[in-house]
Amino acid sequence: MNWLLPEYLADALPQEAARIEKLRRVVLDLFRVRGYELVIPPMLEYLDSLLTGSGSDLTLRTFKLVDQLSGRTLGVRADMTPQVARIDAHLLNRKGVARLCYCDSVLHTLPASQAATREPIQLGAELYGYAGLEADIEIIRLAAAALTAAGTPASRIDVSHVGVFRALSGAAGLKAADEARILPFLQAKDIPGLRECCAGLAEPYRSAFLRLPALYGGVEVLEEAIEKLPKLPEIVQAVETMSGLRLALPELPLSFDFADLRGYHYHNGIVFAAYYPGFPSAIALGGRYDGVGRDFGRERPATGFSMDLREVARLSGDGDGEESILAPYVGGDASLAARVAALRNEGHIVVELLPGEAASEGPECTQRLVRRNGRWITEAITGID
Prior knowledge:
The chain is of the alpha+beta class. It is built from 13 helices and 16 strands.
């Protein structure tokens, strides 16, 4: 059984591959006309570069190997965001705002879920060099536009802010180990587990942690947060930032979830997750991660998002292929050759039958080229042909 692939890895067959490629072009063109420039980082890098600023989560998801040239440890990228941050900080070194985008495969040691692949095609956009809320607004609006262009418009975009948890953690005197115990229960909205973890904390911080999972919903949640959470300056500022997003993006289905802290060790501001109807997991994730370029020698404000193009392509439709035209073997027929070339120049798929080939087993053809009154024309292929 040597031809079997490892678990959670799969080939993209023609129909799926065509759908993925079509969506890639559509979304990258959408990025391009908004000023986002495409970069293509390498699949392998030195491990310390790949894991810069990413925290322990990415460490566990990264395949590692030894470089036969240098003897140093390499990593197969599990996330392209640190690579793009390196490009911005170390190679481009622009003084002002930089808008970059990317699309390529990444590799995970373990799947994110039972239905996930270990080789997502990560497509995303990053904005560097602007610390204001306007950059977050641009990125969230871009993420929503990309999902709509891909045929999977977001039904809900959950917004959170890691500053709330960090403010409570600092005020309560939590250590890193304490945070690591609390975060999983908080993200899972496991109230009994969260209550047990917070049993020894002083008030009002114990009660504040227990309130976070219930702070989920519309704009009324922001008012409730201001009313019921401690009046720490960082919390007040975080809620004001979330309110600013709501006012700036009335056309988007924003909701708020104070317990959604994915990427807590990586992000340091607004975070968001976009959802599609009927699909349980987020189809796009993003947020602010200022300072990620610090270890590359240049600390910059940064915000961005990414999605798995394989997953989006699977959700975007039933996968019907483009209509194709079946043509006889051209040989030396100049008029047929000219007609085939003209159709292909117009963007049509034309499959030329080889000598003796009865029918094509490639793209499904719905039309064929036939000669009528000295002219090559297209006719529909019917079931009785």
